[in-house]
């Protein structure tokens, strides 16, 4: 019961996890109740159970599981988060529920699966169920199939993907289990219900009996289309609607649904593709050319068998197609022709769209072969061409088909027309646009007049089909000249036609219905897609109504839709259309008079031809009034204009009457339903009067009105032909002028360019200059709309004329055509017509190319030329290419039929000679221009190979290929390139050049497209692999292209495509997708020719997206104007700029509004991401000599999302004044937007570096001004510059220090000064040092001076990489040619001398005599003027820390009084006046006294001012400076040694191999010199930590880095191992290594020994041998307790960690054995208590049972051996050493030891311990004697060699010291007396040396212990101060710092002994615990990378803030100041 009561108290979720089944049962029941109560699907309660639901369904107890399943079902049904559990729960159901015997459990499992599908997780469920089909348990397989069947039955084939199920069906049918086969049968029946016969092909290979059974079942199925009975959550509303309809008996539209559902799955999609090219007979190509027809037949039969496979794998079928085409075209045996045609049919059917690229070659051949009469040949050819048609589009083969239409052979003509008719049936209104229909209709109209009946009938059928497809409205314009009889015949044919895509009811249907079905299924035109959406949306609704109501909605393909558009098109449209289309019959004069007299005043008509002009005038006035009052419907336009044309008509002599008459014509045209018939009556007269001076304007007005009534294209054509049929030049020129103006007013759509051009050419040839001028003006206007291609028509004009035309075009360049103002209202519908959604926006623009006279060049492409191009000799190949270029140049514009040329050129694209590749690319560019849009058909066979050339290694070849591809794309549009798999196949190739060029091209092209083919998704997997490409440029380009792919495919599709990636890749790619989602540009708004209706809707389209677009980089043109303000002035692409111009006030207003927001946006992690990108080489590293465009572009792009758009425009403007404005704005916003500025700091600094390269001084001054303020702000904010910010800014700032202008130089120095507050001086040093290498002498001098200042302020530690190297470099400049540089170098070294004395001479090395004398002279002189140094010192420190002055140098160099004026200057410049108050007055008071100080020993104690001096100075009443007795500069050197060592050690762990090697070399030098090695004491742990960090770095990073030379790594390893060996030979140092550090070190070394990558390297074995030696040294020389403890812990860790290899543990144990062997010698030096504690812990973690379970028995043996040895050596006493173990009784160790002792006692009997011990040691001695001999032999060998004498003697001394009883006599016996004396003398010397060494430090007044303790503390304590966390800091820290300062100044520290040393305050507990060295990393290494001086300075800064703790008490009273003065006096006097 106790248990019960326990779990009853638990919360529900814990009960569910309880180990008691009752508890779980109770938990599931309560959970079920809770789930049913929760109403909110998003309640946080659901999330609690996320991880438990899998346990619910997989419970091991069947009863409990049942309840769990019930609860899980309710959870899945109601929880919003349930979707996250899909995978794990469904797999749990499959594996643990479906195998249950209980039916209820299985039912619930199935229900859960179905519920997951309902909540939109169908794919995941299906995936798990399909995995279940591979389970070995047939029960599970059956249940999975059953679940899939149920899901399909309920949700339908749209939700359940059938392809993967159908794939596994054959396998299921072969199962041994009957139950599985039966279920497979049932699911096959269910699938058949949904997709019908599409299921047959995949199942054709199953057992015939099973197939027969299936057939029988299939027959029984009802024929109606199935419907889903269950819906996804997102479709629930739909379900409700469906129920309503069913209750209302609305099943009538089942048929419509049929059409919707059945084509869901195409059998082709379900098939596996078969590869046939490799299966072709090897001799196929020889056989197909054989002379015997039987052999040719064999070859063809082999192909026929292969192509019977219903789906073929893509490949290069070019050769095969070529061979078959040859047979079809040229074989004399008709049977073989038919066979080849069948093969082509098979290829086309099996390849589908992939065959499209070959279609263009084959179609003409097949069509011409129709001359054969034999029915079986004709039938085979028909089948072939029909199959081929389905693989391509009519557009692509139209040229070939039209060319054959002119053939003289009637059979060919007939079959071609029939083929066109069949092709039309597959078309829809969208895929058969006007531009395509026009040439076909023209050709077919010729055929309906053919003499042969069959030709005429075929033509009628084709025209009838066209009529049926696109409707009468579209075809009628082309049938205008066809007589009634023929027209009826066409209509009759039309009624008989049945279209592939759907049927129509009656002959009028095409006018009423916009053919929803074709629209829906056609995937070719963009409009097709739109219709699909429209029609598919209201699925359950009555489908027949849907299109009708939509008819006016999307009139994209307006031809069929507009007339039937009941409500939405509007009556106005309708009327407009009617008037346009109505061709009024011509009335007789009598009828006209009758109609006119009915509406005009009775007096009017008789006076029309009065001889008195006044009467005529009066008559006209009445006429005008009558017209003005007339109603549109009543106005008989034709009658009225006939009256006006009546005698005198247009021959009227009185200009007033004439003006009136023309005005009336305009009125009638405006107010009435004016037809073309009426227009023809008046136009002649109008043209006649257009040149009249007085009446011309009225004539133009009337013509404009007519153009508005009868559309401009028709009017213009009439007017032009009339004007040029006259000879009056005035009329001609004015007509041209009118037309130029009219085009601007009406727009260009629909104009017949060709007709105009012939007239314009006539005009250009006119003798009258006015006519020529007008013609050129008209051309200028046309150029606005047509573009540069217009010039092509006039290239053969005279040069003088051509230059005038060019000048006119030049004027128009850059202008955009004005938005049309007329012709819109009436013909909005017609305007809509023109803008066909899938086609070009302006017909004129696209049509212009169609009017070019194109030459046929196929006859010039002879087989000789083709073979020339393919010749082996490159010179002949070049000749061939030259010929081709000549042919194309000569022809200018060519027809698309170019014979064998594509194949020949394709071969040259991979020519080994790159010059020929480039020439081929040039030819292909020419070809694209010459062929125009018709080049489309060559995209697949020629365009894609050009893309392959983008992978060429030569950049110029790639550039040429890119230009060619772009040239082609301009002609073809992008659709052809993106369709099919070809492009994705190219992207798949792992060629970095190809990938980056192709992605760059796509990133440029995709944003301009409105829609893309669905095949674009095929590129996505390859795009993802590019995102992770090894090449940085590829990754960068892929990231750039990502948003544009997403723009077309949508985030969901892109995210879904990541499913197949590895988990690590997936996470990275998803993160990039998220980032791209934010930057995703809006799609370009659909471009329509301007019309108000369209214009109004366009802004709405891009409204939602315009906000993000505005920020994104790729701002599209449309989103520039504010969406709300974008007036509907037409959104034609050409009109966009005009739109911008028309509302300038509004856009400027908008800019003003914009400026109110922040200028720097805070982007979370933005800076970090940019740094990552730069590190990962995803972007260019900011490193250049002069900034290139790509750097500017990159910076602009990076700024786009964190800098305000308007500010960015100013920043990147070409005019410097804008840069000044930007800087002014940045200054203004500096204080208010601190966060933003810091977030964008890297970008701001980069932008400022660009300004350093500007030549304008004002910008530079302003930039420097801003920088001063910026760094002041950063230091106040306590910001630290990052490495990347510093490296991308400081080098460029240093360039400016060499400016000729003094002001700029001073400013730059001031900025460098301030930078030391935000960036460590030690890191600044190398940058400035680099600046000294400049060619600019001013820069060199200034940099040297700055280096001096740094050393003066921060001490020698700033010198990098070492003081020695730095000073040597500075000293080089003493010999510089330039005097200023020499002086600067000398001054800098003198500064160093002043700080560090004679040590300088050692550091600078050998100088030439001249240089040395100059230096000595300078040093002497500086000694005479000692005042300089102290002044600078005292000024310098506060100045550096507080950054008061705006100009550091004035303060540094000038006298003190300059300060106030400079402060004022700083204030006036917007500095912070309070900065001035932070300078304590004490400094200024003491200046004079300090200046008068003549002492040589300098005492720098600036901190004295900051604190209560009494507290600190108490222990030292009168400081006594030490006289430097031992070494003149020892104190200086010693005080620095520790920090220098710290610094060098920090460099050991550097990521840069060279830095690390240098540091190791320096340490090695120290370690090798015995007198210096002691300096390392106290730093050993630190050094070892740095070393194993470096080992880790090599192991994890460097070894994996392929770019790194492995020799470098080996070099680094050798340095590390060498150093360690040196270290572990010095026993005193080796013993300092602590346990934790030794553990990590051993771990690192053993890992290195096991690294297989090392073994593969050349010198790898050598490295491993050295490591072996080192490990031995470590084991022998380290503190034995520490090393033994470390090994035990390491063994424990390695056994616990599953990841480590068994070899690792084995090596650790080997080390332990080695230690065990050493135990007899070392037992007395070991702290046994520690060791036994470690063993106790080990045994606690690994009890005996657990150890026995280990695979190897080594661990237990090792432990036993160790304990055994210890027992043996210590005897019963060992039990006294268990003091550190808390509860000994529980310890397994004590029991073990007791047992062992008892056992040994029993064995030894009466033998004493001593005997045992002796025995043991004796045995040991025997075994090791041989070793000892070897060792001594080695030592004597060394002594004998010249090089290693010293080393050998040292080793012998060590050996003798260690083994005092060792006998070396045998080795000396054989040698000469001289050698023996030498050895003795050497050993004596070493002894003296070693004994004498201990006294040196103490005599200097600093105990070695002191040095050890006082070095690390400042480093660690200061770090906390620098951070100013507000933590209190104890006085001991300051005391410690004071000690260091005193030490540096030569003061005694010994008197402070009464205070406890700081180490005791900070020391660790006595029992050292084994820690991993991370603690030490924090305490020692965290601050090592920055120099100690930097911290001291930051300390000063922190001490001035009130938060820095109790020590900063105010000391402003005068008494304190006096006290301070006295003390300083005392110090000075004592120094004298």
Structure summary:
It is built from 111 helices and no strands. The protein is mostly helical.
What structural class results from the helix and strand content?
mainly alpha
Number of strands: 0
Instruction: State the share of residues found in helices, binned by percent.
Output: 55-70%
Radius of gyration, whole Å: 48 Å
Poorly predicted tracts of residues? 250-263, 503-582, 825-847, 1087-1153, 1425-1500, 1502-1509, 1516-1535, 1805-1810, 1812-1819, 1894-1928, 1951-1972, 1978-1989, ...
**Percentage of residues in DSSP E strands:** under 5%
N→C terminal distance: 93 Å
Principal-axes geometry comes out as: globular
Counting DSSP H or I runs of 4 or more residues, the number of helices is 111
Residue-averaged pLDDT: 75
The major sheet is characterized as: none
Structural overview:
This protein is mostly helical and 2032 residues long. The chain contains 111 helices and no strands. Helix 6 (62-78) crosses helix 8 and helix 47 (863-869) packs across helix 48. The radius of gyration is 48 Å and the shape is globular.
């Amino acid at each position: 019961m106790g248990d019960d009561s326990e779990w009853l108290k638990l919360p529900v979720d814990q009960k569910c996890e309880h180990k008691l089944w009752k508890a779980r049962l109770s938990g599931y029941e309560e959970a079920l109740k809770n789930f049913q109560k929760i109403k909110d699907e998003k309640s946080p309660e659901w999330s609690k159970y996320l991880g438990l639901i899998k346990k619910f369904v997989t419970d091991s107890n069947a009863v409990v599981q049942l309840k769990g399943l019930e609860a899980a079902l309710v959870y899945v049904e109601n929880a919003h988060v349930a979707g996250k559990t899909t995978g794990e729960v469904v797999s749990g159901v499959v594996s643990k529920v479906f195998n249950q015997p209980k039916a209820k459990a299985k039912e619930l499992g199935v229900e859960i699966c179905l519920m997951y599908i309902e909540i939109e997780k169908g794919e995941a469920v299906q995936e798990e169920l399909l995995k279940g089909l591979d389970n070995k348990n047939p029960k599970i397989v059956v249940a999975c199939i059953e679940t899939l069947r149920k899901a399909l039955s309920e949700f339908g084939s749209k939700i359940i993907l059938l392809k993967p199920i159908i794939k596994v069906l054959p396998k299921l049918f072969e199962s041994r289990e009957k139950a599985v086969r039966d279920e497979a049968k049932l699911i096959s029946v269910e699938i058949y219900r949904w997709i019908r016969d599409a299921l047959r092909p995949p199942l054709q290979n199953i057992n015939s009996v099973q197939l027969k059974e299936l057939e029988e079942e299939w027959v029984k199925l009802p024929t109606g289309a199935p419907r889903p009975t269950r819906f996804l959550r997102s479709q629930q509303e739909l379900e409700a609607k469906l129920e309503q309809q069913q209750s209302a008996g609305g099943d009538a539209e089942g048929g419509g649904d049929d059409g919707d559902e059945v084509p869901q799955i195409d059998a082709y999609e379900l098939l596996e593709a078969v590869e046939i090219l490799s299966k072709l007979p090897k001799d196929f190509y020889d056989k197909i050319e054989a002379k015997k027809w039987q052999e040719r037949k064999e070859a063809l039969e082999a192909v026929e068998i292969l192509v019977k496979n219903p789906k073929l794998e893509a490949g290069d079928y070019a050769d095969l197609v070529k061979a078959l085409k040859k047979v079809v075209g040229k074989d004399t045996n008709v049977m073989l022709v038919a066979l080849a045609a069948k093969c082509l049919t098979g290829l086309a059917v099996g390849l589908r769209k992939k065959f499209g690229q070959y279609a263009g070659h084959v179609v003409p051949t097949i069509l011409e072969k129709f001359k054969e009469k034999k029915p079986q040949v004709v039938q085979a050819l028909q089948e072939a061409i029909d199959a081929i048609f389905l693989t391509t589009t009519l557009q692509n083969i139209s040229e070939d088909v039209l060319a054959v239409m002119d053939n003289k052979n009637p059979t060919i003509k007939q079959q071609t027309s029939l083929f066109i008719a069949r092709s039309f049936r597959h078309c829809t209104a969208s895929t058969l646009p006007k531009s395509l229909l026009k040439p076909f209709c023209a050709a077919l109209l010729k055929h309906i007049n053919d003499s042969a009946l069959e030709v005429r009938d075929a033509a009628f059928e084709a025209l009838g089909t066209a009529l049926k497809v696109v409707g009468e409205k579209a075809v009628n314009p082309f049938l205008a000249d066809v007589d009634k009889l023929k027209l009826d015949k066409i209509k009759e044919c039309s009624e008989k036609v049945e279209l592939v895509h759907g049927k129509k009811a009656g002959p009028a249907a095409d006018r009423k219905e916009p053919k929803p079905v074709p629209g829906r299924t056609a995937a070719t035109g963009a409009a097709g897609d739109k219709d699909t959406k429209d029609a598919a949306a209201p699925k359950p609704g009555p489908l027949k109504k849907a299109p009708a109501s939509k008819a006016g909605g999307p009139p994209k393909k307006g031809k069929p839709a507009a007339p039937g558009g009941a409500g939405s098109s509007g009556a106005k449209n309708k009327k407009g259309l009617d008037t346009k289309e109505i061709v009024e019959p011509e009335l007789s004069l009598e009828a006209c008079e009758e109609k006119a007299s009915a509406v005009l005043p009775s007096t009017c008509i008789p006076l029309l031809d009065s001889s008195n002009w006044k009467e005529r005038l009066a008559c006209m006035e009445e006429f005008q009034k009558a017209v003005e009052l007339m109603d549109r419907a009543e106005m008989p336009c034709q009658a009225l204009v006939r009256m006006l044309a009546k005698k005198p008509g247009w021959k009227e002599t009185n200009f007033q009457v004439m003006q009136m008459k023309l005005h009336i014509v305009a009125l009638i045209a405006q107010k009435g339903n004016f037809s073309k018939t009426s227009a023809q009556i008046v136009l002649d007269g109008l043209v006649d009067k257009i040149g009249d001076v007085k009446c011309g304007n009225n004539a133009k007005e009337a013509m404009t009105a007519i153009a508005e009534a009868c559309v401009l294209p028709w009017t213009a054509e009439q007017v032009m032909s009339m004007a040029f049929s006259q000879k009056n030049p005035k009329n001609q020129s004015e007509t041209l002028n009118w037309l130029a103006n009219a085009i601007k007013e009406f727009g260009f759509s629909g104009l017949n360019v060709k007709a105009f051009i012939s007239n314009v050419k006539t005009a250009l040839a006119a003798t009258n200059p006015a006519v020529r001028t007008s013609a050129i003006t008209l051309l200028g206007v046309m150029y606005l709309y047509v573009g540069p291609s217009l010039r092509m028509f006039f290239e053969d004009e005279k040069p003088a004329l051509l230059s005038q035309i060019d000048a006119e075009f030049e004027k128009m360049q850059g202008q955009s055509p004005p938005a049309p103002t007329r012709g819109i209202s009436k013909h909005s519908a017609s305007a809509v017509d023109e803008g066909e959604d899938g086609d070009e926006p302006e017909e004129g623009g696209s049509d212009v190319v169609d009017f070019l006279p194109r030459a046929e060049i196929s006859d010039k492409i002879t087989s000789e030329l083709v073979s020339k191009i393919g010749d082996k000799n490159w010179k002949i190949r070049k000749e061939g290419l030259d010929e081709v270029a000549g042919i194309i140049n000569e022809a200018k514009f060519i027809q698309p039929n170019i014979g064998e040329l594509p194949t020949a050129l394709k071969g040259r694209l991979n020519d080994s000679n790159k010059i020929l590749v480039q020439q081929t690319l040039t030819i292909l560019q020419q070809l694209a221009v010459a062929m125009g849009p018709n080049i489309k058909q060559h995209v697949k066979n020629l365009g894609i190979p050009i893309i392959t050339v983008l992978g060429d290694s030569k950049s110029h070849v790639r550039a040429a290929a890119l230009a060619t591809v772009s040239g082609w794309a301009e002609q073809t549009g992008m659709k052809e390139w993106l369709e099919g798999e070809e492009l994705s196949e190219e992207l798949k190739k792992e060629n970095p050049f190809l990938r980056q060029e192709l992605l760059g091209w796509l990133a440029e092209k995709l944003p301009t497209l409105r829609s893309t083919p669905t095949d674009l998704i095929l590129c996505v997997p390859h795009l993802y692999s590019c995102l992770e490409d090894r090449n940085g440029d590829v990754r960068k380009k892929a990231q750039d292209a990502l948003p544009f792919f997403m723009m077309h495919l949508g985030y969901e599709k892109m995210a879904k495509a990541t499913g197949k990636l590895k988990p690590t890749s997936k996470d990275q790619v998803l993160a990039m997708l998220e980032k791209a989602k934010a930057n995703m540009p809006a799609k370009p708004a659909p471009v329509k020719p301007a019309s108000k209706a369209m214009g109004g809707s366009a802004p709405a389209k891009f409204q939602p997206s315009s906000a993000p677009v505005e920020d994104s980089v790729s701002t599209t043109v449309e989103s520039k104007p504010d969406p709300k303000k974008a007036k509907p002035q037409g959104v034609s692409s050409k009109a966009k700029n005009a739109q911008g111009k028309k509302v300038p006030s509004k856009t400027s207003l908008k800019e003003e509004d914009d400026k109110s927001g922040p200028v720097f946006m805070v982007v979370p992690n933005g800076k970090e991401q940019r740094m990552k990108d730069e590190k990962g080489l995803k972007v260019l590293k900011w490193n250049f000599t002069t900034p290139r465009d790509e750097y500017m572009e990159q910076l602009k792009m990076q700024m786009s999302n964190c800098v305000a758009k308007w500010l960015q425009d100013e920043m990147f403007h070409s005019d410097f004044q804008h840069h000044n404005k930007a800087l002014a704005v940045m200054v203004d916003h500096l204080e208010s937007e601190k966060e933003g500025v810091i977030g964008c700091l890297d970008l701001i600094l980069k932008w400022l570096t660009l300004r350093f390269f500007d030549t304008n001084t004002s910008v530079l001054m302003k930039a420097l001004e801003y920088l001063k303020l910026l760094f002041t702000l950063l230091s106040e904010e306590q910001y630290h510059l990052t490495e990347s910010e510093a490296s991308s800014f400081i080098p460029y700032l240093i360039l400016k220090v060499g400016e000729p202008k003094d002001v700029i130089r001073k400013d730059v120095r001031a900025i460098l000064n301030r930078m030391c507050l935000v960036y460590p001086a030690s890191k600044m040093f190398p940058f400035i040092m680099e600046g000294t290498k400049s060619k600019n002498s001013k820069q060199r001098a200034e940099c040297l001076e700055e280096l001096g200042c740094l050393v003066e302020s921060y001490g020698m530690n700033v010198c990098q990489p070492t003081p020695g190297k730095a000073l040597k470099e500075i000293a080089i400049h003493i010999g510089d040619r330039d005097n200023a540089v020499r002086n600067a170098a000398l001054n800098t070294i003198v500064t160093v001398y002043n700080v560090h004395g004679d040590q300088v001479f050692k550091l600078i090395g050998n100088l030439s005599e001249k240089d040395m004398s100059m230096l000595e002279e300078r040093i002497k002189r500086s000694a005479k003027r000692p005042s300089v140094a102290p002044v600078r010192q005292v000024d310098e420190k506060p100045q550096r820390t507080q950054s008061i002055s705006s100009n550091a140098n004035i303060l540094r160099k000038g006298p003190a009084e300059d300060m106030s004026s400079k402060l004022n200057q700083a204030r006036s410049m917007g500095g912070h006046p309070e900065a001035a108050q932070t300078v304590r007055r004490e400094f200024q008071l003491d200046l004079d006294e300090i200046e008068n100080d003549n002492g040589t020993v300098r005492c720098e104690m600036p901190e004295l001012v900051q604190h209560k001096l009494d507290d600190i100075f108490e222990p030292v009443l009168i400081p006594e400076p030490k006289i430097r007795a031992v070494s003149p500069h020892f104190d200086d050197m010693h005080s620095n040694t520790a920090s220098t060592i710290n610094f060098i050690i920090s460099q050991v762990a550097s990521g840069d191999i060279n830095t690390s090697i240098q540091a190791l070399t320096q340490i090695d030098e120290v370690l090798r010199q015995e007198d210096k090695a002691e300096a390392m004491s106290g730093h050993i742990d630190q050094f070892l930590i740095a070393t194993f960090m470096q080992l880790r770095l090599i192991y994890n990073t460097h070894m994996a880095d392929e770019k790194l030379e492995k020799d470098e790594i080996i070099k680094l390893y050798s340095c590390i191992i060498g150093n360690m060996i040196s270290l572990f030979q010095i026993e005193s140092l080796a013993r300092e290594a602590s346990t934790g550090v030794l553990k990590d070190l051993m771990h690192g070394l053993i890992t290195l020994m096991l690294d297989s990558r090392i073994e593969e390297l050349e010198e790898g074995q050598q490295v491993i041998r050295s490591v072996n030696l080192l490990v031995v040294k470590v084991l022998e020389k380290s503190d034995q307790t520490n090393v033994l403890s470390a090994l035990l812990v390491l063994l424990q860790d390695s056994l616990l960690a599953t990841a480590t290899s068994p070899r690792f543990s084995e090596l650790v144990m080997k080390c332990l054995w080695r230690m065990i062997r050493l135990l007899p010698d070392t037992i007395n030096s070991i702290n046994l208590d520690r060791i036994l504690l470690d063993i106790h812990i080990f045994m606690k973690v690994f009890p005996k049972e657990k150890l026995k379970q280990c695979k190897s028995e080594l661990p237990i043996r090792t432990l036993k051996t160790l304990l055994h040895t210890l027992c043996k050596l210590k005897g019963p006493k060992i039990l006294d050493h268990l003091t550190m173990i808390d509860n000994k009784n529980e310890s397994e160790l004590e029991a073990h030891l007791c047992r062992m002792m008892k056992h040994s006692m029993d064995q030894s009997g009466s033998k004493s311990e001593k005997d045992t011990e002796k025995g043991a040691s004796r045995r040991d001695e025997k075994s090791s004697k041989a070793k000892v001999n070897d060792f001594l032999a080695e030592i004597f060998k060394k002594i004998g060699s010249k090089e290693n004498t010293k080393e050998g003697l040292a080793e012998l001394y060590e050996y003798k010291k260690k083994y005092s009883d060792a006998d070396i006599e045998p080795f000396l016996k054989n040698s000469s007396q001289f050698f023996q004396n030498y050895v003795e003398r050497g050993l004596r010397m070493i002894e003296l040396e070693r004994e004498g060494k201990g006294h040196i430090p103490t005599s200097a007044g600093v105990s070695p212990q002191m040095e050890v303790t006082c070095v690390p503390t400042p480093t660690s304590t200061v770090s906390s101060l620098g951070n100013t966390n507000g933590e209190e800091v104890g006085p001991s820290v300051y005391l410690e710092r004071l000690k260091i300062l005193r030490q540096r100044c030569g003061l005694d520290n010994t008197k402070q002994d009464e205070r406890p040393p700081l180490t005791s305050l900070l020391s660790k507990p006595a029992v050292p615990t084994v820690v991993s060295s991370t603690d030490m990393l924090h305490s020692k290494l965290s601050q090592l990378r920055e120099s100690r001086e930097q911290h001291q300075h930051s300390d000063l800064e922190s001490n001035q803030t009130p938060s820095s703790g109790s020590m900063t008490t105010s000391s402003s009273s005068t008494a304190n100041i006096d006290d301070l003065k006295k003390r300083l006096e005392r110090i000075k006097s004592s120094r004298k």
